[in-house]
Amino acid sequence: MTYAITGLDPEPFAPLFAMSDAELAARSACRVTANADRGFPCRISLEDARAGEELILLHHVSHDVATPYRSAYAIYVRQGVAAATWRDELPPVFAGRTLALRAFGADGMLRTARLAGPGEVDGAIRDLFADPATAYIHAHNAAYGCFAARIERDEP
Questions:
Q1: Which domain of life is it from (predicted)?
Q2: Distance of CA 113 to CAs 9, 56, 142, Å?
Q3: What single-letter DSSP state applies at residue 46?
Q4: Distance between CA atoms of 146 and 39, rounded to whole angstroms?
Q5: Which pTM was predicted?
Q6: Chain mean position to CA 129
Q7: How far apart are CA 15 and CA 78, in angstroms?
Q8: pLDDT tens digits along 8-21
Q9: pLDDT in tens, 116-142
Q10: What angle do CA 79, 81, 94 make, to 5 degrees?
């Protein structure tokens, strides 16, 4: 069993970077400049922005399903980056973070969940996918609760 972790499609976010601060605010978003090399995780590239890089902080529906588990929260995105895909390895943005892994069925209903600390994430993903009823997994930063990435089965 293999898995793939893919960043968000940058296209829907691209127009945000041309908006004024007032236009962003009207969309419950704002422009942010990273003040450290860690702590500003881009959900497109799945890497932390570097100090001095500009990001947009916005409200994002990460689990758009017609179930009680529909979910949304704040995320950061950077301009000019491609959606990264990681197969059978973890993206840099997961490094050193404790993640809440939420396993969902094809119906969008939560099946089970698990906390995974640094060094435990790969094994936890594989364990959750050992259940054939797990269709996909959402990773969230455990401390802040923000959506980190969607994890899919990647089998031939």
A1: Bacteria
A2: 25, 29, 12
A3: S
A4: 12
A5: 0.93
A6: 18
A7: 12
A8: 999 999 999 999 99
A9: 999 999 999 999 999 999 999 999 999
A10: 110
